[in-house]
What does this fold into?
Amino acid sequence: MEKPRQPTEPYRVKSVEPIKLLARQERQQKIEQAHYNIFNIDAADIYIDLLTDSGTSAMSNRQWAALMMGDESYAGAQSFRRFEKVVKGIFGKKFVIPCHQGRSAENLMFSTILKPGQYVLNNTHFDTTRGNTQHKGGIAVDLPCPEVDAPVPLPFKGDMDTRRLEAFIEEHGREKIAMVMMTVTNNSVGGQAVSMKNIKEVSRICKKHRLPFFFDCARFAENCFFIRRDEPGYEDKPIKEIAAEMFAACDGVMMSAKKDGLANIGGFIALDDEELYQRITDLMILVEGFPTYGGLAGRDLDILAVGLEEVMDPDYLQYRIDQVKYFGDILMQAGMPIVEPTGGHAVFIDAGALLGHIPAEQFPGQALTVAFYLEGGVRVVEIGSLMFGGTDPVTGEKLSAPRELVRLAVPRRVYTNSHLDYIAEVAARINARKELLGGFKISYQSRFLRHFTCKLEVIAPRNVEVNS
Ligand code: F0G
It folds into this structure.
């Protein structure tokens, strides 16, 4: 198969940050010292870091310039006014509440509106959204569309199952439901896009039942790009118009701006309901800060005001989505089975399919994650039985992961296509000797979110062999 053409960057580089590949022996030592948990490795010991696309973007010259305009006044800063104007312009809501990141927006929202025992319905909850729902005594329910696991590259696998949504509301009644949410793009199922058709249908159902409808819109611009590319009728529409149409369908949004805000920190809530705005800001003053800075510095708000506009640039988005697609294509050429289509922010490798000889309870995703570090100094993250398995800390139930995946998230404007080529070469080397990879067992784990801090041991000596 011919190598796909590299997409060309719509920017040039003005400032560089050196990165270094440690010698293989040093990498071996580092991973052993980290008890084979990639979260325990210092960033300085990583060559290419694909742990997340969150807070890892490179800022533009305009953003660096905006930083100097930061107004650090406690109340009514000009930075907030600039930020507020941009957010209103894109999301079309009356009230804007800055927050230091996405999960603080979730915490404020659910602390304010959720009554214990109520449901929150979502196409698929991101971990922190689920966690914040549960923390306030709520029940998080996922309603992904039936095509989500289809082994074919359908365009809108991020959609919500509207038939199940209607049925759920009929069965439980609207009083039992705090809100309906739509996560765009749908991170937990592979950064898959949600169609405008689906958004409008969910909106219609919510209106009919008088249920609040909110977006979790961390990657809204990437979702708009997919709508323009793949949904009939949107080919010629500017991204900003698509965004306006999308957000006109909802009552409000919560955003982690560490993704499509092209910033290293930040988030917000935007909404129309004045009474809810009042209640959230009352709480916010206690826990986050005054409503015109929300736990952020004035300069962060200025950076976001620029980033939120910049992210909708069609050349940037074309490049961004093409780069992730290119990465997926070269990984497939290197023998990696991936989730198709490639999503907006990451490529997901099916480690369960690649390492069929390692059973789920021995964490094939972690075996591949460790192999990426040992073979190439690359940090990726397991999204399988290590992250989602184990025992439910509240109910004591045994948990299982739907699939054994490994996520390679691509930071925005940070790595070049040559970095991605290098990773594909690492993948090909792993693939050539994959039978030698062995599984892992856990020697220590915490009750909640064990993957962040657990310690692991190699079960078979094979994993050492492949990398010696
Ligand atoms: N919603 C979605 C869809 C997310 O992907 C994230 C974070 C959050 C909310 C929480 O936002 O981190 O600013 O508090 N996702 C990161 C990731 C951590 O790696 O996917 P936050």
